[in-house]
Write a structure and sequence with these properties.
Blueprint (H helix, E strand, L loop, with lengths): L2 H13 L4 H9 L3 H19 L2 E4 L1 E6 L25 H14 L3 E6 L7 H14 L4 E5 L5 H9 L4 E3 L7 H7 L6 H14 L2 E8 L6 H14 L3 E6 L16 H14 L9 H6 L11 E2 L6 H4 L19 H10 L3 E3 L14
The structure holds 5'-deoxyadenosine and FE2/S2 (inorganic) cluster.
């Protein structure tokens, strides 16, 4: 390894930050040896902060209607082949009740940008989950909404929000999204969420079309500056009914490499091993500096329909009902599934 690179790695471990140029050099140097070295440092960091604890979140994909048309996404509005579904309030509440019985203390409500879920409907739902399960954290992942809407949802009891920034490079953002979507608005949403007091998760796809090491360095610098409590990354996987049907998928290796870098940059961050990672490699979710898994709590009948990319894992193992076998697999690599709410270390309390 050349000395400049060795200095950069040392700097990343000690100071948790690099310049844009140093990040680009690190990303370009991506090799098996470098990935292994960074992964072992990332595991050390994770263990120092979290021991062998791994947090579980129950994921409820409650609607696949979406008004947007992201070029990469299988549930984009323009995909007339998508079979649409929307869970009722009762169905969502019953997913939470079942999840609670299974030991989940965080529910992640994720959906497309579905105009049916107005502020009135969403706040009513959040308030009811909060009333039934006051010891649980409610995480929302509903895309872009107004500041007033985010505030109302927070006041109703939601404490965490996941909104991937997708790319911190404005030009790249416009290559991945239709002209009607705005990079500035996405960034504004993230800053509003943080301002309101949410624990916020941002993130991006690894190997998305047109992505360069320079753009990834933009992502890392943005994340370093934004200091999210959570970061969601996963490989880009093409979906047959999208503009990017023929684009190459991101790789497991690159995703793990970036997970290691993120762990070293933000030692306390909650870093899920995402479903997309599990989709490209059966054991993908058992690797890397990650410390969160989000099994699917959605009714089995609709899981295939929430298809952002092709060949999503939707099997028994993926399902939350199979939490015991997930536990078994995690124990086999010395992780222990933790039942507590798993707040970010710099965010210990609950707001209500
Ligand atoms: N491949 C991988 N991830 C995708 N997402 C959307 N479409 C794809 C795809 N084809 C990710 C986006 C979005 C999150 C919910 O899923 O980053 O923010
Ligand atoms: Fe729904 Fe991107 S297609 S937000």
């Amino acid at each position: 390894m050349n000395t400049t690179l060795a200095t950069s790695i040392d700097k990343l471990i000690r100071h948790k930050l690099l310049t844009h140029g140093e990040f680009v050099a690190l990303l370009q140097a991506n090799s098996e040896q470098l990935r292994a070295d960074l992964a072992s440092e990332a595991v050390k960091t994770r263990q120092a902060r979290f021991g062998n604890r791994i947090y579980i979140r129950g994921l409820i994909e409650f609607t696949n209607y979406c008004k947007n048309d992201c070029l990469y996404c299988g549930i984009r509005h323009g995909n007339t082949n998508a079979e649409r579904y929307r869970l009722t309030k009762e169905e969502i509440l019953s997913c939470c009740d079942q999840g609670y019985q299974l030991g989940f203390r965080t529910f992640v409500l994720q959906g497309g940008e579905d105009p049916y879920f107005t502020d009135a409907r969403m706040t009513d739902l959040v308030a009811e989950i909060h009333r039934r399960h006051p010891d649980c954290a409610i995480t929302l992942s509903l895309g872009e909404r107004s500041r007033e809407s985010y505030q109302a949802l927070y006041d109703a009891g939601a404490e965490r929000y996941l909104l991937r920034h997708e790319t911190a490079n404005a030009a790249h953002y416009h290559m991945l999204h239709p002209a009607a979507m705005s990079f500035e608005n996405r960034m504004q949403c993230l800053s509003d969420l943080k301002d309101i007091g949410y624990q916020v998760g941002c993130g991006f796809m690894v190997g998305s079309p047109f992505q360069t090491p320079e753009m990834l360095a933009d992502d890392l610098l943005f994340i370093q500056d934004f200091r999210p409590q959570m970061v969601g990354i996963g490989p880009f996987i093409s979906h047959k009914d999208t503009v990017f049907a023929d684009k190459k998928n991101g790789t497991l290796e690159d995703t793990l490499f970036l997970l290691s870098i993120l762990r070293l940059m933000l030692p306390d961050v909650l870093l899920p091993a995402t479903t997309a990672l599990g989709t490209i490699a059966p054991n993908g979710r058992e690797l890397g500096g990650s410390n969160v898994v989000m099994p699917n709590l959605s009714p089995v009948g609709v899981r295939e329909q929430y298809s952002l990319y092709d060949n999503k894992i939707c099997t028994g193992e993926e399902s939350a009902q199979c939490i015991r076998c997930l536990s078994g697999r995690m124990e086999s690599i010395s992780y222990h599934i933790t039942v507590d709410r798993g707040d970010a270390p710099d965010f210990p309390g609950t707001h209500s």
